[in-house]
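To fix ideas, we quote verbatim one protein's residues and fold tokens.
>
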Amino acid sequence: MGLDIVQFLENKTILVTGATGFLAKIFVEKILRIQPNVKKIFLLIRATDKQSAAHRLHQELIEKKLFAVLKQRWAPNLSSILKKLHAIPGDVSSENLGVNDSNLRSEMWREIDVIIHSAATVTFDDRYDTALAINTYGAKHVAEFATRCVNIKMLLHVSTAYVRGKNSEVIPEKAFSMGETISGWKKLDINEEKFLSEELIGELRKRNASEEEITIALRNLGLHRARLHGWPNTYTLTKAMGEMMMRHHLNSNVSLAVVRPTFITSTCKEPFAGWFEGFPFRTLDSVAINYGRGKINSFIGDPDTILDVIPADMVVNAMIVAMAVHANRPAYRIYHVGSSMSNPLRYADFQNSVLNYFTDNPLADEDGIPVKVGKLILVDSMESFQKHLTQYYTLRSKEQNGFQSLHADLKRNIDNAMRAAEICRPYAFFKGIFDDTNTKSLRATAVENGVDLESAFRFNPRYINWEDYFQRIHLPGISGAFKLKRARL
């Protein structure tokens, strides 16, 4: 029997958490574009009331350029299609997802067929209490909500491949057991982690600490607890605990698919190439833009490190295929959606791509003068990076400003660059390769059931030409986003 994904989506009701996030927007747009007869899409949006949620829906989804293709394709029926979107004020960090209207909750529990949980704080060093509330306890609340949905076909949880932490081997698509750690130092007690953050807040408030001091202390606590248990940062620790919570609190009769993307980049094809959202930039994109601006001429990293990146529309296609395959089939499966196994990208290749692109397409500095770039220097330690930065900024400051305000500018620029490098450091030297056996099996199952993976639901990274993708799609996309943001400032 074949699997018709478009037909599967007809008359279905879907709940999407984190609805204003980068990945969720692409998911919602594609669902509406390929199946305008979906019954309803509930979009959980952080807002105080329905009016505020509806406003965010229009401002942050419908009015985005991302939806232009959808609007053109279904122009005569657009208003009826957009009515399928229902903005729900709520918050995954609260019980019942913060849906306070009991009648609405009952309607959702009665009608929902599929839940896509993509809500997350993706700041690597966020406050520990915030990251726990959203990434960890948010997953628990979604699982409990799903258990109340009487007609649910499946739950798809968006995690990250980097929950597996440090590894220099092939990293399997393996689940966590409750309390498992990377370091193996001590069993992880999630409730204790929450208690530690609450205890710290209480102590600081007794001492009349400022909100800034509390934020700094909670950021440091998250990083300390992550590294103690073997994770590189607060984000990956709290997402790993979220996977544990999701599995533990979900009814075993509900099919669960966990999609673990690697670093998500701009769309390569759908709804058009190069759509990107997310400013200020993080990780590689931050490196690329600051290099193009002449803010840095070096960065940490090993030229032979594999940078595992994957275009956003491929992640969404994998999500949709997994959703259809898992519906009504009670199972628990993890899918790595990345490129390091099938089509590895070396740091040196990225290094060459940014050099070639910004040589041919220079960004302008604050005075409108095109910035000339040299090859990005890769250094092997934070100490070497700081030395390069100090030399670079000292020279630039003398050239531009003489000695006036040299020390203040120098310190600010170096501090910002060092913080970015510290965040990127675990990935700049990462030696793991993500096994994608389950994801390959998912593609094989889809093909066997007649799904068009070549054009309609493409998510095989093997066919990406990285040089072409960076030169023609991704770097133009993030450069355009940077120029637009700067023009608005």
Observations:
- The chain has a mean pLDDT of 91.
- Residues 406-428 form the longest helix (23 residues).
- The first strand starts at residue 13 and ends at 17.
